Amino acid sequence: MEHVHRDADVQMEQKIGAVYQALTKQTVVAYIRQLHLFEATENLQAREVGDGNLNLVFRVWDVQTKQSLIVKQALPYAKIVGGSWPLTLDRARIEGEALQKEAAYVPDLVPKVIHMDGTMALTVMEDLSHCTLLRKGLIDGQQYPCLAKHIGTFLAKTLFLTSDLALPSLEKKAEVKRFINPELCKITEELIFTDPFFAHPTNRFPEALRPAVEEMWQDTLLKIEVAQLKQKFLTAAEALLHGDLHSGSVFVTQVETKVIDPEFAFYGPMGFDIGLWIANLILNYLSQSGHLSDEVKRAKQQRYVEQTITETWQQFKLQFGDLWESKGIDVFLKVAGYRLVYLQKVWTDTVGFAGCEVIRRTIGLAYVADLDSIAKPELQLACKQKCLRLGADLIKNRASIHTPEELIERLQGTQSSDQVKRDASHYRNYSPGQFAIA
Ligand code: SR1
Ligand code: MG
């Protein structure tokens, strides 16, 4: 009888993978069995562990040996919305190839790819369950001493070495072509650079925030600046970007940093990756009055986030400069002063893109736990109000925010206790219905 079951298993395993099908925790085990990645396959178990917006993520492990791995599979639609938002499966190829590309430059800072399957739109990779998702760690008030150095390194190497600064022209154009990613770029064009700045149905925010949001929608000067940032995102093929470098795309321990999820990878402006990274640190910073009520602890955690912003840029600048000297190929790289001008332009873009990300994470479709898990509604609204103000400030004034220190001054400016108290007491007058997300 048992051999009949085994034959049926084998037949099912042979079928899985022949054509695309979304995996379940049963079929993922059958799929993994046929790859012979585990020493033995009788005791495999699987669990869906994905909490992202787009994909299925399974952890598969051997109950006996504890050996484990991760299977990430693209669905033919955006999971956050459902079947009404179809989405290309090619993003799994992009993600796998981007991870391999990054591994060539920063092998210790990305998960190891074990297997890729274009038909099933999946990547099998190293299990990082011993790490914490950075967003969660930061919300919980944790600090990670190596983080800024690691992310600065990741950014400097991946951005410099994939750009025209380091690659011969034909090779770089071939990479632009390989990483053309129109459908995922369109998500960013809409969700970061368009919808939050207009009355669009994808936006989601509490009614009580409407006056502040509508005021922002009236701000023509802001819109002109956002339009220019969007234009840059649409056209500036400077380097191979991660494309979605937020704190939910980073796993950490006290000594390790792993950047995951580059399915949005494409050739775009360098400041976009750095800006998203800094924006998500800012979102955490601005949320802390909703999480840490102890003022001393909060001040300490905010200093840590400030340092992480400054150190990331310092590391990026330092390592980008070293690569400029050692790996640069364009003759203009030897012209005195060009490096400073180049980096200043990347910084200005960074500040503007950070502003757009802060705003869209506050009122757009893809919200963040930093803000949305703040339990007291009036505090959550006060924090969101600060995010809107600072986001618009960064976008409009990016050309006069010359350094991370100047950015941090603006960040600290949002914390004036008078302002926070004024915002919170203002929202205390709202009825419960107005706190609900529309
Ligand atoms: C429909 S996807 C929404 C967001 O999730 C991804 O992580 C990206 O940030 C995207 O903008
Ligand atoms: Mg993601």
Secondary structure elements and their pairing?
Layout: H1 2-15, H2 27-35, E1 44-48, E2 55-62, E3 68-74, E4 77-78, E5 82-86, H3 90-105, E6 113-117, E7 122-126, E8 132-133, H4 134-139, H5 147-161, H6 169-178, H7 182-191, H8 210-217, H9 220-235, E9 239-241, E10 250-252, E11 257-259, E12 266-268, H10 270-291, H11 295-327, H12 338-363, H13 369-372, H14 377-397, H15 404-413, H16 417-428, H17 432-435
Antiparallel strand pairs: 1-2, 2-3, 3-7, 4-5, 6-7, 8-10, 9-12, 10-11
Helix pairs in contact: 1-2, 5-11, 10-11, 10-12, 10-14, 12-14, 14-16
Keywords:
438 residues; alpha+beta; five-stranded antiparallel sheet; three-stranded antiparallel sheet; 17 helices; 12 strands; 12% strand; disordered N terminus; binds 5-S-methyl-5-thio-alpha-D-ribofuranose; binds magnesium ion
Q: How far apart are the first and last residues' alpha carbons, in Å?
A: 57 Å
Spatially, the strands of the biggest sheet line up as 1-2-3-7-6
The biggest sheet, with number of strands, parallel, antiparallel or mixed sense and barrel status, is: 5 strands, antiparallel
Runs with pLDDT <50, length 5+? 1-5
| Arithmetic mean of pLDDT | 94
Task: Tell me the total number of β-strands.
Answer: 12
Radius of gyration: 23 Å
Give the overall shape, derived from the CA principal axes.
globular
Cofactors, ions and other ligands in the entry: 5-S-methyl-5-thio-alpha-D-ribofuranose, magnesium ion
Q: Please tally the helical runs, counting DSSP H or I stretches of 4 or more residues.
A: 17
Class by helix and strand content? alpha+beta
